[in-house]
Every structure is written in structure tokens, then in C-alpha cells.
């Protein structure tokens, strides 16, 4: 144990050397290395968590840097999981870090969750949170929830010591379209507050001092406009579709977020479509930093107030954004006004860049 490194926390009677030993022997899997995962990972590594796992399929975008403080400008375009792991190890080389450049699927959850003590949620959609919850209950792991939007943040702990699960709070995904940070915006410092809160919850759960009470059974809500805090009690629902059955009966499912009945196409699919009209729905500053040659610009912000892209009558329309989220929303809106075939480009501009890079390397 690195005595000097952790001296400022081991001097606290609530932590002490026994608590530090517990931290060094613990393991945490962070699902997502974005706005929530970034601060959580840094503080968990600094605190001396013995083993940290990081799973994230995404690549670093310049727009991430406003809140994803684990990354630097020279990391743009690289794997979030890989760079986050390198940053964590540079902060504390005395811990073990494993990274998984992948999407959390039921198969991945089945493989990874049993290997970690606590799961931290750094995701931004209901489908991923439901998968985390169901897998955590199935494998008997507490998980620490976080959510941010605009100036608002939430945190809680689920499935800790027979406490309620996420589905006790949200039995099903809301029918209304819930925007993510890329669509609705977020203050970076809000992500920091919630991510740090998640890290603190993990430290308190692991050290288990009698003075610590986790957020199990509580939803902690912060409005940073006024700095008002509210806490909502969550009761375990014995009719909950997950809590009410045996763990072995839990079937893990995951449906990636979609948008209405819009179909997605991959980069390779583009060659099979006739008379394609590519529409870039990112904002002008993103377009200026790079775009697909031959595409037209019509930002989502303009589409949502009724502007329609300037397209020829017989074209097959393919909309793209940075990652394929905003383009689904834009496609649904555009489809209200036109009858032509319309698609969203899966993976967006990031996927196109990767395709072009791979194509260059193969030649």
C-alpha cells in the first residue's frame, strides 16, 4: 500500500488503513467513459481502487472535451476506453486497469459483471441503464446510477443490500422522446458534480463505515440553477418485473436507441443505393471541421423549426450527424414532409472517417 499517496484519506477515521485496504482489494466496472465516467474514473483511481474496468465503444470528439475531462485535444478521434485507461494509469500506476473498446451488450454484461464488485453507470439512455440494472440484479452487484441534462443531475444506488432496483423507479422506458446531451445540451461542471458523487458513493459503499449511508432507496436530484437539492424515496416494488423473479430467470435484453420507423444504413450500404443525397444535420461549426464530400448542410436546429433540406425530387435521402443519434431525430422530422426514401447513416461522420482510414490502410 502506498502510504504517502493515500495519507490524506487514511488519516480520516472513517477510512483509516482498514478502509484503504478494502479500496485496494475492490474492483469497479465503469460503463461509459464520457461526462459521468471521466470524473468518476479519475477520483476512483486517485483513491486507490484496486481494479478498474472501462467499457466504451465510442471515439473522442472535440465536442466531448467540454465535459469529458479525462481526455485532451490531441486524443480526438481515438478510442475513449483506451485513452481513459491510459490516463487512469498515468494518475495511479499502482492499480490495475482493463479496458473494453466495445458496446455493453447482454453477452458483454454476462462476461464482465461477475468479475467486478460494483458497477458505475456512465450511460445516457434508458436502454443501456435497463441492461445495467438487469445484469446487476442477475449477478448480485450494486450499481451507481447517474443522469445529467442541462443544469440538472441525478444520482442513486440500486440493488445494494436487497435495496430497490432501477425498474422499481422506472418500470418501463418513457414513451416520450428523451433527448441526450448531444441534443439537449449540458453544463460540463454538472457532469463533474454527478460523476464525483458516483465515485464518492462507491468509496463509501466499499469502506462501509457505520457513519456512511448510501443513496440506496433514494433518488438525489440537483438543480444547479438554484443549487437546490431534493431527495426522493424509492421503495422496492415486489411486483417489479426484475425484483419479483429469481436471478437465474432474468433474461438480459438490449435494444439500441432508435427513432420512430427510420431505417439505418451503413457506409458500405451507400454504394447499393441509387441517386443518394447526403444531408449533414450537424451544426455549422462541426461542418467546417470536416464533412463528407458532396453532402449538403442542413442543421438539426433548423430542421426542428420546420426547415426542409434542399433536395431533388427523386433522390434517396441519407442524413448523417457525428455519431448517428441526431440524424435519426432529424430523419423522423423530415419524413413528415416528404415521401421519398429517407435513411439515417449508422455511426455518422465518425463511421465514415473510420471507413476512409481503413480503406487507405488496406491500399
Automatic annotation (TrEMBL):
Molecular function per GO: ATP binding; molybdopterin-synthase adenylyltransferase activity; sulfotransferase activity; thiosulfate-cyanide sulfurtransferase activity; ubiquitin-like modifier activating enzyme activity
Record-linked CDD domains: RHOD, ThiF_MoeB_HesA_family
Any GO CC annotation of this UniProt entry: cytosol
Start and end residues of each Rhodanese domain: 272-361
Catalysis: reaction(s): [molybdopterin-synthase sulfur-carrier protein]-C-terminal Gly-Gly + ATP + H(+) = [molybdopterin-synthase sulfur-carrier protein]-C-terminal Gly-Gly-AMP + diphosphate
Keywords noted in UniProt: ATP-binding, Nucleotide-binding, Nucleotidyltransferase, Transferase
SUPFAM superfamilies referenced in this protein's UniProt entry, alphabetically: Activating enzymes of the ubiquitin-like proteins
EC nos: 2.7.7.80
UniProt similarity note: Belongs to the HesA/MoeB/ThiF family.
Subunit structure: Homodimer. Forms a stable heterotetrameric complex of 2 MoeB and 2 MoaD during adenylation of MoaD.
Functional note: Catalyzes the adenylation by ATP of the carboxyl group of the C-terminal glycine of sulfur carrier protein MoaD.
Protein name: Molybdopterin-synthase adenylyltransferase
The species this protein was found in: Micavibrio aeruginosavorus EPB
Lineage: Bacteria, Pseudomonadati, Bdellovibrionota, Bdellovibrionia, Bdellovibrionales
Amino acid at each position: 500500500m502506498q502510504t504517502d499517496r493515500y495519507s490524506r484519506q487514511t488519516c480520516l477515521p472513517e477510512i483509516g488503513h482498514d478502509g484503504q485496504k478494502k479500496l485496494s482489494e475492490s474492483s469497479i466496472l465503469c460503463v461509459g467513459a464520457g461526462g459521468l465516467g471521466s470524473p468518476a474514473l479519475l477520483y476512483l483511481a486517485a483513491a486507490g481502487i484496486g481494479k478498474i474496468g472501462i467499457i466504451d465503444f465510442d471515439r473522442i470528439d472535440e465536442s466531448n472535451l467540454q465535459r469529458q475531462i479525462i481526455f485532451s485535444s490531441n486524443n480526438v478521434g481515438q478510442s475513449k476506453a483506451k485513452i481513459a485507461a491510459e490516463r487512469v494509469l498515468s494518475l495511479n500506476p499502482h492499480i490495475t486497469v482493463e479496458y473494453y473498446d466495445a458496446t455493453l451488450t447482454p453477452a458483454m454484461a454476462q462476461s464482465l459483471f461477475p468479475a467486478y464488485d460494483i458497477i458505475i453507470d456512465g450511460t445516457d439512455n434508458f436502454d443501456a441503464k435497463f441492461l445495467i440494472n438487469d445484469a446487476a440484479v442477475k449477478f448480485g452487484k450494486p450499481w451507481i446510477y447517474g443522469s445529467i441534462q442541462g443544469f440538472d443531475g441525478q444520482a442513486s444506488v440500486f440493488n445494494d443490500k436487497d435495496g430497490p432496483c432501477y425498474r422499481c423507479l422506472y418500470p418501463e422506458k418513457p414513451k416520450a422522446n428523451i433527448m441526450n446531451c448531444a441534443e439537449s445540451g449540458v453544463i460540463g461542471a454538472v457532469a463533474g458534480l454527478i460523476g464525483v458523487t458516483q465515485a464518492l458513493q462507491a468509496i463509501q459503499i466499499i469502506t462501509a463505515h457505520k457513519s456512511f449511508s448510501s443513496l440506496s432507496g433514494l433518488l438525489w436530484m440537483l438543480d444547479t440553477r438554484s443549487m437546490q437539492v431534493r431527495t426522493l424515496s424509492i421503495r422496492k416494488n415486489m411486483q417489479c418485473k426484475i425484483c419479483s423473479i429469481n436471478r437465474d430467470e432474468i433474461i438480459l435484453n438490449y435494444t439500441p436507441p432508435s427513432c420512430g420507423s427510420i431505417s439505418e444504413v451503413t457506409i458500405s450500404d451507400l454504394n447499393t443505393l441509387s441517386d443518394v443525397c447526403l444531408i449533414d444535420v450537424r451544426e455549422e461549426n462541426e461542418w467546417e471541421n470536416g464533412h463528407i464530400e458532396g453532402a449538403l448542410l442542413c442543421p438539426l436546429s433548423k430542421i426542428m423549426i420546420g426547415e426542409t433540406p434542399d433536395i431533388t425530387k427523386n433522390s434517396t435521402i441519407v442524413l448523417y450527424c457525428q455519431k448517428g443519434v441526431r440524424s435519426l431525430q432529424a430523419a423522423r422530422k423530415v419524413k413528415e414532409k416528404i415521401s421519398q426514401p429517407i435513411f439515417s447513416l449508422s455511426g455518422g461522420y465518425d463511421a465514415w472517417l473510420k471507413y476512409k482510414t481503413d480503406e487507405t490502410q488496406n491500399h
